[in-house]
Specification:
Chains A, B: This is Phosphate acyltransferase. The structure is a homodimer of 350-residue chains. With 350 residues, chain A is of the alpha/beta class. Chain A contains 15 helices and eleven strands. Chain A folds into two domains: 110 residues, Rossmann fold (3-Layer(aba) Sandwich); 203 residues, 3-Layer(aba) Sandwich (Isopropylmalate Dehydrogenase), CATH 3.40.718. In chain A, α1 crosses α12, α4 runs parallel beside α5 and α6 crosses α13. The interface between A and B is large, with 60 and 59 residues.
């Protein structure tokens, strides 16, 4: 039995979205159980033999500061859900709440794995190969050192090897050119560390990749700092929305184009499905001593259920143990001498 | 008469693309003259009353290092073209050559304007409003301080106000959230400097924007460091290519979809036109004591001609003087005390 703790109050829609997703998920996975965490009144009507309500008296708002979420709302549904993972009553927690608060609470309660300074958010972006490219970090860390990027690469490799049949996934370092001399000092140092890790057999490092490679699917994993990853993700979402809206407007321009739209229905449906980021909802918070998955705040029931699936897959496949094993194997590389670590960031302040 | 110096040898295709573009451009603008810079043998057959060949004996390769381009090839077509601007024989130079080399040579020959530490590359990205968002920097500077971002904002505002009818264009600071507390230390400081500039009446600062806002068209200008800007640009190009290819494949799947494609022709043509980055080809190198425009290396004749148009518009509208005037006006803000400037970058090394 795989048990997930679900923060039913999180996200833009709360129980209205999370509860239908939970019910559908339970119907689909007979070996899954859910701990539904939230205000009792909101969850009172949900009954299922494999669902248990766990009461929380507070809710972290989408606009709450990390300070408020962490220090003031100690009985929030988000925190209680993560506590279930810490206590071992659930194998993973899922929340659609405020990312900053989720990361802070998860880090505070669960702590990071040995060898990992900072957790990262790993998400999937659909690519031209019909699969998805795993990109991390998507926004947890706005300033990263070369060592952090190496840690992200190790964690991302573990994630992809666990959740797909690909034992040795390729890693690309997001840069502004393919040549090793490109990029800022942090990126160049990251390239050196990643090449060293590849030589030691800890990583399948492809080399530098550029923004377009995320969609080409050049590598299974793309590593970048959270600022860059977040901008890349949101820029893509913006362009995708623009194109979908453009097609909607143009195809409804007149009777002729409306007829064309009807005939183009199979193509447009396939495009819509390919561009549907709901299918890829559920980003892993990697590097913690416990599994936590983040759903998009605006997720609908279909999207939220994908996040539940992802958490279930990760728990069933022992993602945590396997990430830990990968990190332990790469430990000599991750343990960079302090003076070297300092040195790598020095040029940033020049 | 507006005279442009054209590096006819630059880009992936050289004279095969640049010469037809030059001819078409000359036919369209009766008050324009061109200095065609390149190897005599390559330009021998081009004759036009308003075109003059300027001989250069070398060509900067797309893979040449900045060192080679700057120190070894002193008679390159790229350098000779920029020299025309320095000497005053041309009002602007246009090249499709290697970006790093172009920036280095332009900076070496022309020098930066007072108050500007680093030139930036400003390009246009089509937005949902039917216009284009001007984004800078697109890759000239991989590490930027808050002061650099302020300089980019001032230069970008001058560019847009000169090349459009918008006297007071809005500026957004690319960030990972709208709130002023978001982002790394450099971005937060940039926000402070931009707000101060807005209060002094030197800028129309909107506030933070996110990646999707580039395509929404939330602001006329989006300011970011060159690493982030380059990733955002290439990520968008990758997604756009994926969608266009997807539609091509899906619409040619069978007789029925081929028929749908024929009926959808007006819509697909409109989409292709909207997504056609050739129309927006020609990025300005801002902050130099002379006008230089960079065409995409893979530009075809249509795209290269757009870069010529852009350079012509900039020259005719006295972009250089107007950028200079804006910078002079904002000089008290740009002249940040040295210790304060140091302080702003300090947290980056923490």
């Amino acid at each position: 039995m795989i048990t997930l703790a679900v923060d039913c109050m999180g996200g833009d829609h709360g129980p209205r979205v999370t509860l239908p997703a939970c019910r559908h998920f339970l119907d689909r996975y007979p070996d899954a159980a859910l701990l539904l965490v939230g205000l009792p009144a909101s969850l009172a009507e949900f009954a299922h033999p494999r669902a248990t309500v766990v009461v929380a008296s507070e809710v972290v708002g989408m606009d709450d500061s990390i300070e408020i979420a962490l220090r003031k709302k100690k009985d929030s549904s988000m925190r209680v859900a993560i506590s279930q993972v810490k206590q071992g009553t659930a194998q993973a927690a899922v929340s659609a709440g405020n990312t900053g608060a989720l990361m802070a609470i998860a880090r505070y309660l669960l702590k990071t794995l040995d060898g990992i300074d900072r957790p990262a958010i790993a998400g999937q972006i659909p690519n031209a190969k019909g699969g998805a490219t795993t990109v991390l970090d998507l926004g947890a860390n706005v300033d990263c050192t070369a060592e952090h990027l190496l840690q992200f690469a190790v964690m991302g490799s573990a994630l992809v090897s666990v959740l797909s049949d690909n034992e040795n996934p390729t890693v690309g370092l997001l840069n502004i050119g393919e040549e090793a001399i490109k990029g800022n000092e942090t990126i160049k140092r990251s390239g050196e560390l990643l090449r060293a890790a590849a030589q030691a057999g800890d990583l399948n490092f492809y080399g530098n990749v550029e923004g377009n490679d995320i969609f080409v699917g050049t590598t299974d994993i793309v590593v970048c700092d959270g600022f860059v990853g977040n901008v890349a993700l949101k820029t893509s979402e913006g362009l995708a929305s623009m194109i979908v809206n453009f097609l909607r407007v143009e195809f409804s321009r007149n009777l002729f184009t409306k007829f064309a739209a009807i005939l183009s229905y199979p193509v447009l449906t396939a495009l819509k499905k390919r561009m549907d980021h709901r299918r890829y909802n559920g980003a892993a918070l990697l590097g913690l001593r416990g599994l936590v998955f983040k759903s998009h705040g605006s997720a609908d029931a279909f999207a939220f259920e994908q996040a539940l699936h992802r958490a279930y897959d990760a728990a069933r496949n022992n993602l945590l143990d396997r990430v830990q094993a990968r990190i332990a194997h790469a430990a000599p590389l991750l343990a960079v001498p302090a003076d070297y670590a300092l040195d790598t960031t020095a040029p940033m302040s020049a």
